[in-house]
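Continuing the batch. This is chain 6 of the set; chains 1 through 5 are on the previous pages. Same settings as before, nothing changed between runs. Recording input and output for traceability.
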Amino acid sequence: MKMPRDTRLTILERRRVKRGAREAEVAQERAREMAAAKRELAKRHVLVNPQNLRPTNSYGTPDFVKRGHYVDMPFNCKSCGVLQVWTEFQQKWWYESAKGDVWTKSVLCRNCRKREQARRAAAREVHLAGLAAKGKHEQ
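Output for chain 6:
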């Protein structure tokens, strides 16, 4: 026996609504699982906030952005050769607060970095003193 057309349409509509409700439940469950995984990851690592990163005109994406969190990175100082660790917190500060380029990595230890800053400041003072002696620059 054939079913009237409008009865068939109502049955198909009910099935579509049920399927949509099931898909919505699955999506909510997946979102809950992702949020729980992110909370668990945040307990162990410092998470990346891509909105705080400096814009870059590159076709690639840095590893830490793909990964979603920072990891401690060992490196040898370029000046003194001492093995150092660039911590997750230092990376977060450099990339997100200081807006450093996302493709740069730490190459100098803290002591060598301070020494280089002091050397540049002294050179700047000598330069400005020379300009002042010539009368070209006022301090």
